Amino acid sequence: MDYFALQNGELYAEDVPLSRIAGEVGTPVYVYSAATLRRHARVFREGLAAVPRVHCAFAIKANPNLAVLRVLAQEGFGADVVSVGEMKRALASGMAAKDIVFSGVGKSRAELAAALDAGIGQFNLELEEEGVVLAQLAAERGMTAPAVLRVNPDVDAGTHEKISTGKAENKFGLPIDQAPEIFARLAKLPGLNLRGVAVHIGSQLTSLDPLEAAFNRIGALVRELRAAGHAVTHVDLGGGLGVPYRPGEEPPSPADFGAMVARVTKDWDVALMFEPGRVIAANAGVFMTQVLWVKPGVTHPWVIVDGAMNDLARVAMYDAYHAVEAVRPSGEMITANVAGPVCESSDVFAKARKIDTVKTGDLIVLRSAGAYGATMASTYNSRPLVPEVLVEGANYAVVAGRIAAETIMSEENVPDWLK
Ligand SMILES: Cc1ncc(COP(=O)(O)O)c(C=O)c1O
Ligand SMILES: N[C@@H](CCCC[NH3+])C(=O)O
Question: Does residue 38 sit in the same domain as residue 86?
C-alpha cells in the first residue's frame, strides 16, 4: 500500500494533503510517513522470520531525524551508527545502548571512548590498530569491548561506483585473506571480546547474487576461524538492499533477501545482525518543492523549482533517479527538465522527463527521498537548511525546522583582526 497517494485529485501523505503542509511549513520540505516506516520495518523483520537469532539495526546515516528514529525504536530496531553524533541520536530516540553497533572506517579515539562509556552493543573494527586501541581503552575502564572484524570480501556489488564498498580497492574492511591472522592476534587481547565478523558490500543493490557471494565467503571464514579454535557467535551482514526508484523497477524484496539469508546461513549457528537503511526509509519520504518559473529551453522547457541540490544531493552526486510528480496532476503531460536555483550545472533533478504540465506556484514531489535526503543537505549558496515533517494518520508535525543561513551570519564569526 502506498501511503503517498492521490485522494480527490491531490497527493496526500497518509491522511494529510501535501498542499496543507506546503501552506503551513513552506517549501522545499521533506515529508515522511510513519505508517510506511513501520510497515517497512515489519516487512524487513518478517522477511527474516526463518532465521533464528536476528538483530535489526537501522543505518542511521540514511535518516537520522529523531522522530523517524523514535518510530523505528518503537518497532524494535536498534541502530548502526558511524559517529558519536549518530550514537547520541540513537540513544535520544529511545534505542538501548546494547542495540547500537558502531561501524565506520575512521572512528576517532575520543569516539571509541565515548561509545565504550555509553555501553554500546558492538564495535565493527576496520583495522588491527583500531582493535588494539579499543582494547586498551576498554582495559583502562575495566571493561571488555564486544567487537567483530569487518572484512572486505572483494565482491563487486554491481551498484554505482560511489556507493560500492566491498571491492578490494575500496577503503572499507580488511582484506578477507588477512582476517584469520589479524583475528588471532586481536582475540588474545584482554579488553576485547572478539566474537565474530561483519560485511557490507555497498548500497542500492538490485541483485542478490553479489550479496550471496559475499555471505558465502563469510561462511567460509567463519568455518576457518572456528577450525583455528575461535568462538564465533556473531555475524553482521550489513545493509545494502535496493529499493525501486523508477516506475516498474522491482529489486529483490526483503522476503527474497530473507530466503537467501536463511539458505546461506542455515548451519552457521550465530546471532545475525542486519543494518538496513535505504530499504526502510527511502520510500517513506518525499521531497516537496514549488515551481518558481517555467523557463523556455533549447530542447525542453526548464521547470525551475525552489528545492535544489543542496537539499537533495543524490541526483547531482550519483546521477540518481527520483520520480517527479505534480501534487495536483493535470493529466496533461509535457517533456521538461526540472532544476533548482543553485549555481551549478549539476543542480538538475530530471532531464527530458515526461511530467504533468506545471506553472509557477504549483507543487511537485520527488519520490523515494526518505533515505539519504535531508541528512545530506547543506547550506550551499547560503540557502536555509531544509525542514522535515512527519505524518502519522491525520497527525503531522515539523520534526526539523528550516534553519536560516542568517543564524550563522554573526559578527562573532569574524576574527578581531578583520573588524
Ligand atoms: C556499514 C554500513 N552499514 C549499513 C549501511 C546502510 O546501507 P543501505 O542504506 O544501503 O541499507 C551502509 C551504507 O552503505 C554502511 O556503510
Ligand atoms: N548516500 C548514498 C548511499 C551511501 C550509503 C552509505 N554507505 C545514496 O544516497 O545513495
Answer: yes
Check pocket membership of 400 for ligand 1, CB cut-off 6 A: no
Among 68, 36, 45, 75, smallest CA distance to 373 is for: 68
What is the span of the domain harbouring residue 376?
4-32+282-408
Spatial CB neighbours of 29, under 8 Å, sequence gap ≥ 6:
21, 22, 287, 288, 386, 387, 388, 389
Cα gap 47→288, rounded to integer Å:
31
Q: Are residues 73 and 146 in the same domain?
A: yes
Residue 70, pLDDT above cutoff 70: yes
Measure the CA–CA gap between 281 and 131, rounded to whole angstroms: 32
Task: Output the furthest CA–CA distance in the chain (Å, rounded).
Answer: 70
Q: What percent of the chain has pLDDT over 70?
A: 100
Q: How many domains does the chain have?
A: 2
Q: Could you give the CA distance from residue 44 to residue 169 in angstroms, rounded to a whole number?
A: 30
**Percent share of the chain, pLDDT over 90:** 92
As for the ipTM of the complex, it is 0.98
Residue 419 counted as domain residue: no
Compute φ and ψ for 335, nearest 5 degrees.
Answer: -105, 125
Burial of 403 (0-12, 13-18, 19+ CB in 10 A): middle
Asked if the structure places residue 414 within a domain, the reply is no
95 and 220 in a single domain? The answer is yes
Tell me, yes or no, whether 20 and 40 share the same domain.
no
Catalytic residue among 343, 345, 394, 419: 343
C-alpha cell at 303: 521547470
Does 343 participate in catalysis according to the annotation?
A: yes
Ligand 1 mean position to 23 CA, how many Å?
A: 35
User: What CATH number is given to the structural domain containing 61?
Assistant: 3.20.20.10
Q: What residues does ligand 2 touch, defined as CB less than 6 Å away?
A: 61, 163, 203-204, 314, 318, 372
Check which CATH number belongs to the domain holding 378 and give it: 2.40.37.10
Residue 344 assigned ligand-binding role: yes
pLDDT number for residue 206: 96
pLDDT of residue 165: 81
- Ligand 1 centroid, distance to 110 Cα (angstroms): 23
pTM of the model: 0.97
